[in-house]
Automatic annotation (TrEMBL):
Keyword entries, A-Z: Repeat, TPR repeat
Domain of life: Eukaryota
Coiled coil residues, start to end: none
Pfam short name (any one): TPR_10
Lineage of the organism: Eukaryota, Cryptophyceae, Pyrenomonadales, Geminigeraceae, Guillardia
PANTHER family: NEPHROCYSTIN-3, TETRATRICOPEPTIDE REPEAT PROTEIN (AFU_ORTHOLOGUE AFUA_6G03870)
Name assigned to this protein: Uncharacterized protein
InterPro entries cross-referenced by the UniProt entry: TPR-like_helical_dom_sf, TPR_rpt
């Protein structure tokens, strides 16, 4: 068994045990070792970089939910650097999708901190990137996050426009999102500001 194989097994065990930060540190090491061993253009290296960005994003949102804002900030900054302009990722479409996810999560981070204008700026960047991609993970979620921030800024009409965009995207999507569509319709009816009726 190679050193990389052993590290991959250890990573899987750490994830299974719920030791996510330890697993992330190991993932960083294996990603570096893969780059040194196989070269940056090798498909395994490119996949490991994608997993690393998604791991940074996932753990950052878990940190936000548990109040670990400093940890969340550091993880999001790492994700942004890894998927950003000077990224080692070679596939432009993948890089853009990962960057959009990162900016969406930065928007959620700023919103949780009460920095609504910074949240809106990050979410707008995510939406801009998503509009330039042929395939994105969940653009409706970006519109909903923007709507939530706009609503907190008392910009209810603009928030409703983004909710409408999210509805249209969900209606065009597949049945995986029917639960989200139902929830969105409920929220639209239940929380529509009286002035917008």
């Amino acid at each position: 068994m190679s050193r990389l194989d052993a590290m991959d097994e250890e990573y899987a065990e750490l994830v299974e045990q719920g030791k996510n930060l330890q697993a992330l540190l190991l993932l960083e090491k294996t990603s570096l070792l893969r780059r040194e061993t196989l070269g940056i253009d090798h498909p395994d290296v490119q996949r490991s970089l994608q997993v690393l960005v998604m791991s940074y994003n996932g753990l950052s949102m878990a940190a936000v939910r548990s109040g670990g804002m400093e940890v969340a900030w550091e993880l999001l900054r790492k994700a942004e650097r890894l998927a950003g302009e000077k990224s080692l990722l070679r596939n432009k479409e993948v890089k853009s999708r990962l960057l959009a996810v990162t900016y969406n999560n930065l928007g959620c981070f700023y919103r949780a901190r009460g920095s609504l204008h910074s949240a809106l700026k990050a979410l707008d960047r995510a939406l801009w990137i998503e509009m330039s991609c042929s395939e994105v993970d969940n653009p409706a979620a970006t519109h909903l996050n923007i709507a939530a921030v706009l609503s907190q800024l008392s910009k209810h009409r603009a928030a409703l426009e983004h909710i409408d965009c999210a509805l249209q995207l969900l209606e065009r999507g597949d049945e995986r999102f029917t639960w989200a569509l139902s929830l969105l319709l409920f929220l639209l009816v239940a929380f529509r500001p009286p002035a917008c009726s």
